[in-house]
Amino acid sequence: MDQARRFPLPPGSTIGVFGSGQLGRMLAMEARRMGYRLHTYSPESDSPTGQIADLKIAAAYDDCEAVRAFAKGVDALTFEFENVPSLVAEIAAEEGVPVRPSGTILHAAQNRRREKSMLRRAGLPVTPYHFVKDVAELEEAVQEIGYPAILKTAAFGYDGKGQTRIEPGVRPSAAWQLFGGQSCVLEAHVDFERELSMVAARGVHGDFAAYPLVENRHVNHILDITIAPAEVEPAVAAEAERLARRLCENLKLVGVLCIEFFLLPKSRIDRDVQSSGSAATGRLLINEIAPRPHNSGHWTIEGAVTSQFEQQLRTVSGHGPGSTEMLRPSVMLNLLGDLWHYGEPDWQALLTVPDAKLHLYGKHEARPGRKMGHLTVTADSTDAALETGLAARAALRRH
Amino acid sequence: MDQARRFPLPPGSTIGVFGSGQLGRMLAMEARRMGYRLHTYSPESDSPTGQIADLKIAAAYDDCEAVRAFAKGVDALTFEFENVPSLVAEIAAEEGVPVRPSGTILHAAQNRRREKSMLRRAGLPVTPYHFVKDVAELEEAVQEIGYPAILKTAAFGYDGKGQTRIEPGVRPSAAWQLFGGQSCVLEAHVDFERELSMVAARGVHGDFAAYPLVENRHVNHILDITIAPAEVEPAVAAEAERLARRLCENLKLVGVLCIEFFLLPKSRIDRDVQSSGSAATGRLLINEIAPRPHNSGHWTIEGAVTSQFEQQLRTVSGHGPGSTEMLRPSVMLNLLGDLWHYGEPDWQALLTVPDAKLHLYGKHEARPGRKMGHLTVTADSTDAALETGLAARAALRRH
Questions:
Q1: Which residue among A59, B81, B321, B378 is least packed, with the fewest CB closer than 10 Å?
Q2: pLDDT on residue B155
Q3: How far apart (Å, rounded) are the C-alpha atoms in residues A325 and B235?
Q4: 3-class SS of residue A129
Q5: Nearest Cα residue to A112 out of A194, A183, A199
C-alpha cells in the first residue's frame, strides 16, 4: 500500500487477513481499538470479519488477480485459518508484502504429514504415527501401532472431521474407503488424562511470550470449555512453555501459535512416548498446532493483559508481543448453533448474570455445531468462574 | 424498527446513538462484541463512531425529518454527549422509541442552572452559587460569594470552556461581557484537595451499580489522568456511592452517569458547605454530572469486569447493569493532539511497553487539546500502573 512502508508498522497501517470468520472479527476489533486498518479476503460476502473490517473482498482464494490487488492494498498479511492456498504467499512475496506467519509455516500446518514431520524434526513429542498412502500400508501400520488406532486424512479437517477410529473389529480397507483413498496418517490412540493447550507469540526480533497453559474440554470433538489456567503441576506448565518456545524458535515464527497437548496420566509414561528428553515430565504429547489465534485463547480478551488478537496484530505489524500476564482465572464457554434449536436463546436470562461477558460473531444461520459466539467469565478461582459460566450458559437454553 | 419490539432488547436489536465521537465509538465496539447493531447520528461525516457503526447518518440535530427517520430505524436511543436538542426526545417519543437516559435528564444536564437546581432539590452537596442574568445581579452575587469566584455560562461548555475566574481586581462588567451577556452561574471558588469522579449505572427496574471512586488529574482544564481506585478513606468512597445512588434514583435514571466531585481538605469543612447530612464526611461537593459514559471511566474497559460502555448498552437495552468489580488497579492517560506537535508520535517506542493498552479514536486531524486516544495500564497497585503509564506516554513524545 504505502510504497515507503516501514516496519514496525504504526497505527494507521493496514493489515490484510485471509479468512473472514470470528478469529478475523476479533482481530479486527483489536485493530480498530489500536487505530490500525483491517482488510479481509475470503469467498464469503456477509462475514463475521467483514462486518467489522475497513474493507472486505469477496473472491476465491485461487483468484490470482484478486489476491494480488488485495495484497497491494495492505502493509502486511496474515490469516485466520490454515487452508489458504500457498499461492497467496507467493503473490504476496512478489508484491513485497510480508506474510506473517510465513508461507512455510502455513504450508506445514496445512497437512498432518508435514506437520508431524516438522514437529519430529524439531525434537518435539508427538503421538506414535505412520504415514499411509494405500490399504497395504494401512494394514501394516495397524499391525505396528495396534488397536485402537486413529486414521486421519493428511489434509486437515477441523473439529473432528476427517478422522475415524480403527477398533479390532474394523477392517482397515473399510476405514480406508471412508476418506476416498486420500493419503492419511495413522496415529496410536492416546489414553490421555486431559487436553491442554498453550497460545504463544513471537516477534520479528525473536521476543517470545506465552500465555498460561489452559485445559480444554471437548464435546463431539468440538471445543466446549477452556479453563485458564490449567490445574497442573508447575513442571508440566514449564514443560509446555519450553516446548512452545522450542517450536516457535524452530519455525522462526512471527505471529501467534497455539499448541494442543495431550496430558498423559502419570502412571502411563513409558519408553514408547517420543519424549523431548531434557528434564521433561514426558507427560505432554503435541496433538496439533495452529499458527494463529485459537478458540482456546479467547479467554485472553478479558482474562489477560494482552489478548491473543492484539498479539497477532502486534507481531504481524513487527512489534514485540504484549504482556501475557493473567488478570484473573478465566473460563471460556463456546455457544454453538445447537443452542438455537428451540428458537432464539434466552438472552434476557443470560444478561442477568453480571459476570458473564458475551461475544457473538454476527453469523446469521445457527447450524448445529457451528460456533456462534462464546462467553467468558473471570473470577477469583477457575472453579468459581466455571460455576458461573455453566449457570450462565444453561440460562440461555430454552426447552 | 421492529414493530413487535420487546424489552429487554436481545442481541440483534439496534441501538441509535446521537453524537459520533469516541464515546459512541467505544459503545459501538461493545455493541459489536455482544451482537447488537449500532446506528449513529451527527452532523459529522467521517467520525470516530461512524467508522465502527452499522449505519451512520450525517445530518443536523434539528433536521426533524432526518431525526424521525433515524428514530424509526432503531429499537432504543441514547446519546454520547449532552447537547442534543430536546426536539430529538420529543420526536423519539412520538415514534414510540425510548430515549435512555430520558429527555428530562438530558434537558437538566444541558444547562448549569437546571443542573444545580436539580442537584439541590435532590439534597445533594453543591458548591455555593448564584444565578445571574445581568451585570447588576453579578455584582450582587460577587458581594455575597466573595473572591475568587468562578463565572460560568449556564449553557454548558466543556473542558474548561465557558468559564472565567473573578479575582479582586477584575471588574464584574468585564467578565460579564466575556460571554456576551448570556445567563450565567457564579460559583464560589472551592479550594479542593483533589478531583474525584464516580461512574454509575441504573437499570430500568432500578438495579444500581457503581464503579469504584477514581481520582482525576486535569491539565489546562482537560482531563489528563484517571487513577482507579482513588486513594481515599473508605468513608469518602462510601459517601460518593451514596450520593451517586441518590442522584440516580432521584432522576429515575436508566443508563450510565458520571458525577465529578471536589474532595475538600479535612481541615476546611465548615458550615458553609451545603452538605447532604446523614453520616456524611462533608468532604465531597458535586462539581458536574454527565448522564453518559465519561472520560474518567475509560479505565473500565480493561480494569473492570464490565466496561462503562457495556453498562450503557445493557441499561439502554433494558437489561440490568453488569458487575462493576475492579480487576486490577488501573490508570488511564489521555493522548491529546499536542502529542502530534512534532509529527507522528513514536508508536514503536510505545508498543515496546508490554502493559500499555492503546486506544485511538480514528480522528484525522490532531489539534492541540483534542482527545485523540488514551492509554490504560493495569497493575498490582495504582503507583505501579501510573509509573508504567507515564513512561509509556513519555515514550510517545518526539522532540
A1: A59
A2: 84
A3: 33
A4: strand
A5: A183
pLDDT at B399: 67
Of B10, B314, B360, the CB nearest to A34: B360
Query: What number of other Cβ atoms are within 10 A of residue B232's Cβ?
Result: 21
DSSP for A335-359? EEGGGGTTSS--HHHHTT-TTPEEE
Count of other CB atoms within 10 angstroms of residue B231: 14
Closest CA to B305 of B340, B277, B330, B284: B330
Cell of A164: 475415524
What is the sign, positive or negative, of the torsion defined by CA atoms of B176, B180, B185, B190?
Answer: negative
Say if strands A76-79 and A14-18 run parallel, antiparallel, or are unpaired.
parallel
Strands A330-336 and A371-378: antiparallel
Cα separation, A14 vs A28, whole angstroms: 11
DSSP 3-state of B52? coil
Element (DSSP H or E) covering residue B145: helix B135-145
Helices A22-34, A308-316: inter-axial angle, 10-degree rounding = 70
Is the CA virtual torsion B355, B361, B363, B367 positive or negative?
Answer: negative
Give B278-297 pLDDT, tens digit per residue: 456 789 999 999 999 999 99
Find the chain A residues whose C-beta atoms sit closer than 8 A to any C-beta of B.
8, 10-11, 29, 32-35, 51-52, 54, 209, 302, 305-306, 314, 319-323, 325, 327-328, 344, 347-348, 351-352, 354-355, 357-362, 373, 378
pTM of the complete model? 0.94
pLDDT in tens, B184-225: 999 999 999 999 999 999 999 999 999 999 999 999 999 999
What ipTM was predicted for this assembly? 0.93
- Pick A35's closest partner by Cβ from B8, B323, B360: B360
- B43 vs B267, residue with greater confidence: B43
The residues, ordered by sequence, that sit 6+ positions from B115 with a Cβ below 8 Å of its Cβ are: B108, B109, B288, B289
Lowest pLDDT segment from B178-182, B255-259, B286-290: B178-182
Answer whether B321 sits within 8 Å of A352, measured CB to CB: no
- pLDDT over 60 (residue B1): no
A348 chain-B contacts, CB cut-off 8 A: 8, 10, 319
Domains, chain B, with CATH or none: 14-99 (3.40.50.20), 128-188 (3.30.1490.20), 194-396 (3.30.470.20)
Cβ contact B354–A328 (<8 Å): no
Inter-chain CB proximity A348 and B35 less than 8 Å: no
A119: left (phi over 0), alpha (psi -120 to 50) or beta: alpha
